[in-house]
Write a structure and sequence with these properties.
With 412 residues, the protein is an alpha/beta fold. The chain has a domain of 257 residues: Enolase-like C-terminal domain (TIM Barrel), CATH 3.20.20. Helices cover 36% and strands 14% of the residues. The chain is built from 13 helices and 13 strands. Strands 4, 5, 6, 7, 8, 9, 10, 11, 12 and 13 form a ten-stranded mixed β-sheet that branches. A three-stranded antiparallel β-sheet has the order 1-2-3. The chain is globular. The C terminus is likely disordered.
Length: 412
Amino acid sequence: MKVTDLKTYVVGTPPPHHGGRNWVFLKITTNDGIEGFGEAYAVPFDARTVARMIEDMGERYVIGWDPFKTEKLWRILYGSGFGQHPDLAKMGVISAFEMACWDIVGKAVNQPIYNLLGGQYHEKLRSYTYLYPAADDPVQGNVSVHCDPEQAAKRAMDYVKQGFTAVKLDPILDLMSPFDPRDLSLEALDNAEAVVRSVREAVGNKCDILIGTHGQTTTHSAIRLARRLEKYDPLWFEEPVPPENVDEMARVARFTSIPIATGERLSTVYEFSALLEKQAAAILQMALGRVGGIMEAKTIAGMAEAHYAQIAPHLFCGPIEGAANIQIDTCSPNFLIQESIETWGGFHAEILKERLQWEDGYIIPPTRPGLGVELNEEVAAKHPYNPVEPGLWHWDTPPDLGGEPHQSRGRK
């Protein structure tokens, strides 16, 4: 069996753009006519550039390759161009090819991927969602929902009524910027605590609260925030500091009883091994469209078991990567919980021929071969590249560290 063709899809998502404004998908086809799909996680480049990177690497290394030889292909791609370093852009490309190859392998032997990696361990997968604004929220945008105590509690209860038993929020989301990490003011700390207190009072013991910060603060600010939030019993504290300094994240972990979670911005077993060795995190959040693909994630999950650490794959992307996450979750004994974008409805359902199944707070693993999903190429063709405004996710100056809401130019 050989790969004979590849095609990329840059899909512009319709509002409200949950999971990103553009998704980058890959389809590779073999001489037997078997198709495999992959997805590259978002990187800070034009999505069309990422697609061209996939095409370039595919033309040079993947066309003519046997998709069953995924490990060897991974090594060739990783070391190409004297790279051999977990660069996020390159790892997104590698991840897309790797999961597409596994999709083909599963289809060739008529088995879901998880049956090829130890078999089904979990019959269903607990899931959580980020707090997304409702259509009737007084102020649109995630910032108002996450940092407004009343609105955060309302949205959390909305999700509990849908069946979720866990929700994630960032009570200092207003303050995120390229100028991080920075110290939090007393006013910002007060507001963050008020948000989490309000959510806990609303959901009671029916729902876990996940603190999903984005590395906005310095080490001592993260410790101060953690001490304020411990009484509300969060399931985890995510990226309390930026992921670049593992020693400082470990220092936060030593000073709080809240388990530390991280991994969205990390790649390969090499970066995750440092987290475990230094006891910087107890919950690993690899993103399969960035970490290196399915086998790399499985290797990380196995390594984590020896440290009594758990996995909770991150997800802010399209449903192809989501399906890859589900394959790893299903066969990993130390799986904790999977991020969902609400209930996998909306455009996440429309872009697939058959949507991912979600019932009463749980994802039901597909039994179809390979990834268990197929890209709806007709829908993809109707949603071309979504131009990104010049100021999107850009700040000219650091946001106010007090209580005033801040929105980046063009933030949606």
